[in-house]
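User: I'm writing a tutorial on reading structure tokens. Could you give me a worked example: one chain, its sequence, then its tokens, then a sentence or two explaining what the tokens reveal?
Assistant: Sure. Here is the example chain.
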Amino acid sequence: MKEIWERFEAWIDRYANLLLDDLNGGAEEEHFEPIEKAIRSELPQAFKEFYRIHDGQYSESEEGLIDTHILLPLEQMLSIWAQLRHQFDEGAFDDLESEPQDGIRMEWWNPYWLPLTTDKAGSFIFMDFAPSRQGNLGQIIYMPRDSAERILLAPSFEAWINRYVRHLEEGHYRYSERMGGIIQKQRLNGVSDDSQHSFWHDSENDDLEGFEVVKEE
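And here are its predicted structure tokens:
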């Protein structure tokens, strides 16, 4: 994860250097414990190593590191999870139906989904600790705002973040202050949100599942 952060920060420094100031310092071991207790699951080692270097972005950040999404600090992950858990316990999601891809449970939200990122408008990326039989423990899934879709991005946190940094380096993303941070070039050029989802579907021809980005011709 140290190498991943070095590459990630090198890209940010070159193309979006103002965002370097948004990064928190590293998390301590005791910061992971409340999350593991809440979700009743052990966090992946790769995730912990990643967050020991930088505990996401400042909670008041307005520009996203992850395709306009804020990379959440651990404390904010737990806060958002608690809000969703309260709504879940109150039955707010009982009558809502989801349209999950294979590997994801058919639920609007599950208490074993830990929020990793948000666009602050209702879309989230989660780490899923309650996959269906076809899924992988700790897989990464996307929940678009105002949508029943639940989209599988990657089989693990490590695969997802490796993939994202590689796509930064390959030139699939740009920084745009107007659009709210680092953003896919296709979205910057006017691709709709619906089309955006196709960039994140699995590809049979790819070396890693999930978070597929369509290359420009």
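What the tokens reveal: The mean pLDDT is 89. The chain is about 35% helix and 15% strand.
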